[in-house]
Amino acid sequence: MKKQTKNYKKIFKNHVNFDWDTEKYQIHHVNGNHEDNRINNLVLLPTNMHITFHSLYSELIFYKDMFEMDNNYQEYVDWERIEKYLYLKSSIFNLERARAISSLQDDPAFYIKRLHEEEVLYAQKYDKEI
Ligand SMILES: [Zn+2]
């Protein structure tokens, strides 16, 4: 397990060829499979965003289970939370694209800039919650 943890960090670092503040940014597995360490499945996210994403995702799984047990559960769903999840998911998609573009251009500075732009957008939209 420990070896695997080091592996994906090493793979990502080798690919982007720059260091990041590990308190501020974490690596996310885009498809949710932590054993899939292919470079296009790894993306660097602001830590707050990463934690929020996973907590919203857990909530979504909970809703899905509740729907299966009771179709009327819809009225208890917090749709704003779902909207937030979808927004984050699309942000992660954009970050992944930015990373892919920056690697093509061999310009990590571009990726860092793009990452910060996304982070600012995210902070503006969910200012009070993070
Ligand atoms: Zn993650």
What does this structure look like?
The protein has 130 residues and is mainly α. It has one domain. 64% of the residues lie in helices and 8% in strands. The chain has 4 helices and 2 strands, in the order αββααα. A two-stranded antiparallel sheet has the order 1-2. The radius of gyration is 16 Å and the shape is globular. The site of zinc ion has 4 residues, from strand 1 and helix 2. Zinc ion binds next to strand 1 and helix 2.
Please compute the radius of gyration using only Cα atoms. Answer: 16 Å
| Largest sheet composition | 2 strands, antiparallel
How large is the share of residues in beta strands?
5-15%
Bound compounds = zinc ion
Indicate the low-confidence ranges by residue numbers: none
**Secondary-structure element order, as H and E?**
HEEHHH
Number of strands: 2
Alpha carbon gap, first and last residue: 30 Å
Protein structure class: mainly alpha
Q: What is the 3D form? A: globular
Oligomer state of the chains in this structure: single chain
| Helical content class | 55-70%
> So how many helices?
4
Strand order of the largest sheet: 1-2
What is the averaged pLDDT score? 74
Number of domains: 1
